[in-house]
Write a structure and sequence with these properties.
The complex is a heterodimer of chains A (about 325) and B (about 270).
Chain A: H1 2-15, H2 20-60, H3 77-84, H4 86-117, H5 124-138, H6 141-151, H7 157-164, H8 181-205, H9 210-218, H10 223-234, H11 236-251, H12 255-260, H13 272-281, H14 286-312
Helix pairs in contact in A: 2-14, 3-14, 4-8, 4-11, 5-8, 8-11, 11-14, 13-14
Chain B: H1 2-33, H2 53-61, H3 64-94, H4 101-110, H5 117-129, H6 137-160, H7 164-172, H8 177-188, H9 190-205, H10 209-214, H11 223-234, H12 238-258, H13 260-273
Helix pairs in contact in B: 1-12, 2-12, 3-6, 3-9, 4-6, 6-9, 9-13, 11-12
Classes of the chains: A mainly alpha (about 325), B mainly alpha (about 270).
Chain lengths: ~325, ~270
């Protein structure tokens, strides 16, 4: 990144004739500061509506506050609660369980699908598919949540299909059952993200040199071998992007769960985002909500930064 | 060749299955919406007497007219301001190479991963103190700020690729940085700006959390936020809820169909860069 920003300016100094250097430098030096005028509005709005609230979140997290009355300083007590209160720890555990569905299924299934349809990526069917697979990305997550709540309900299509293939015994209200609610919510997330991952991976595959596959074929590599020794290694960056996007979607999930289960039954689908919302605006525990907010930011960074490193370094 | 032919067929089958899985929830919504209001239809089932009137009922019950206006106003506030401010900052960081740009850029990039939930609590009190609670500004202003990391990131990526000679030439012609920005750089950046506009439109229209926290009146919210309220109110009347959901997702869907290629390209690039 740093290399990219340096190159153009280096070129510019080379191109400039010697005599112009002295006169050229003055406006350029000014330009470096004029830049601040151009950046000022963005910095201002970002500071007021993102950085300042973030600082406030950190500050609130050290107080006990109901949003109205006095607010005694409690040190790290709110953080201790986040990591000891079973309900709060539960939300973090759920968020990580959701990663399996939000990231695991879309990335693995997406890889398999993209590898299978790679050969027909330029056909007319693929063009139609490209549009169709984007639909879940375009509609509000709230609408996806409502549609799936209905599909997964006791009279819904999922149960209808299960009964049709003779699995009537396992039918249930998937989102209302303590054992299946979290996986069911995960399936909704997987549905939303699968199309995006498939298309990202497919776009990455189209950039792989076909000669690699030809060579593989000549060496007698089967489709599986081809997949693991050519496709996957060449897709590091795309896989990294898919994992990053989906992990953030899982850890910071809110819309789908708010609509589909409100965190229930019990607290089986409660996630940090929803817990923050309830604590801050329903139970009026602003301090605890803020501590969880800080923990969530850190969790996202801790998960995302290593992925970025792993996938970008070699490319 | 035989192997290829078989692979192509497996590919087609996979693709069709995937498309079916993507579309089925919408088909289910649609069929359910056609059933008589208040019934509990089973799965996929074409109603004997399709109730097309449900869409009209839902349109009125959800105050869809007001909602469309409200969402449009919010988009009209968020998108142009964000585009202008982000383009200027991208220009400053990517092209003018302002002093201290690394720190500024890093500060923006760190915001890319920020979950909105983490700042929603202080944002609520801040917006309240500004006297903006329950107005559309309560959604517009924070969203402009929250979109800055991505917007600046996106526009910087464009301006880094613009050759320095262009501004050199403008300098020789005596253009100020401001003139140069408007007359030369912005027209050149139009493809990047319009892709960003598409993404921001989509993210604003579908914004849910800010809408439900900062605005009580559903008719002052975004479409997605209003749907949340609609579910609370009509959640027990499944056909009506399904009809309402379809109505709410129609506008983005139509816009998507019109700008389909741009959308797809923007979303793919957007996630690649983000």
């Amino acid at each position: 990144m740093a290399g990219a920003t340096l190159t153009p300016s280096a070129e510019r100094t080379e191109v400039r004739p010697k005599g112009a250097k002295a006169t050229g430098r003055a406006p350029r030096h000014g330009q470096r500061w004029i830049g601040w005028l151009f950046a000022a509005p963005a910095i201002a709005v970002y500071t007021v509506f993102v950085l300042a609230p973030m600082v406030q979140t950190v500050r609130y997290s050290f107080y006990q506050w109901d949003g109205i009355g006095s607010s005694p300083w409690v040190g790290f007590a709110n953080y201790v609660r986040v990591f000891t209160d079973p309900e709060l720890v539960g939300t973090i555990v759920h968020a990580f369980e959701l990663i399996v569905f939000f990231s695991g299924i879309p990335v693995l299934l997406g890889l398999a699908i993209a590898a299978t349809i790679r050969r027909i990526a330029t056909s007319r069917l693929a063009a139609v598919a490209r549009a169709v697979l984007f639909i879940p990305q375009v509609i509000p997550l709230v609408a996806a949540g409502i549609a799936w709540t209905w599909l997964l309900s006791s009279d819904g299509l999922v149960n209808q299909l299960l009964s049709a293939i003779g699995l009537g015994g396992v039918t249930r209200a998937w989102l209302g059952d303590f054992a299946t609610a979290l996986p069911a919510v995960g399936v909704i997330g997987a549905w939303v993200l699968l199309g995006l991952c498939t298309l990202l991976l497919l776009a990455g595959m189209s950039k792989i040199d076909p000669a690699l596959y030809e060579a593989g074929r000549l060496d007698g590599a089967g489709p599986l071998r081809e997949f693991f020794s050519i496709t996957v290694p060449n897709l590091r960056q795309e896989i990294g992007v898919c994992v990053t996007v989906t992990v953030i979607a899982a850890l910071a999930s809110f819309d789908i769960i708010y609509i589909a289960t409100q965190g229930g039954p019990g607290n089986t689908t409660m996630v940090p985002g929803l817990e923050i919302y309830y604590r801050a605006f329903v139970e009026r525990q602003v301090g605890v909500a803020s501590a969880l907010g800080v923990v969530l930011v850190v969790l996202v960074l801790v998960c995302v930064l290593p992925i970025q490193r792993l996938t970008r370094e070699e490319s | 060749m035989i192997v290829r032919g078989r692979e192509a067929w497996t590919g087609r089958v996979f693709l069709v299955l995937l498309m079916v899985a993507t579309i089925v929830p919408f088909v289910s919504l649609f069929l359910t919406a056609l059933h008589p209001s208040g019934t509990y239809p089973a799965g996929l089932d074409w109603p004997s007497d399709p109730q097309w009137g449900n869409f009209l009922t839902a349109f009125n019950a959800a105050h869809m007219g007001e909602l469309l206006t409200s969402s449009a106003l919010i988009v009209l506030g968020v998108v142009p301001i964000s585009l202008l401010v982000a383009t200027m900052a991208g220009f400053a960081i990517g092209h003018l190479k302002m002093a201290g740009r690394r720190v500024v850029f890093l500060a923006f990039v760190l915001g890319l991963t920020l979950p909105f939930e983490s700042i929603i609590t202080p944002l609520y009190y801040q917006i309240r103190d500004m006297g903006l609670l329950n107005t559309r500004w309560a959604i517009i202003l924070p969203l402009v700020g929250l979109f800055m990391p991505f917007g600046v990131f996106w526009m910087r990526a464009h301006f880094v690729t613009v050759p320095g000679e262009i501004s050199e030439a403008a300098h020789i012609d005596g253009a100020t940085s401001w003139q140069q920005f408007w007359r030369i750089q912005v027209p050149l950046a139009m493809p990047a700006i319009s892709s960003l506009a598409i993404l921001l439109f989509l993210w604003t229209w579908n914004q849910f959390l800010l809408a439900i926290v900062l605005v009580d009146d559903p008719t002052q919210r975004t479409m997605a936020g209003a749907l949340g309220a609609f579910q609370g109110q009509w959640g027990t009347d499944i056909p009506l809820l399904c009809a309402g959901s379809l109505l709410v997702l129609t506008p983005t869907f139509v816009v998507f169909l019109i700008f389909q290629r741009r959308f797809a390209a923007a979303l793919l690039q957007g996630s690649l860069k983000g």
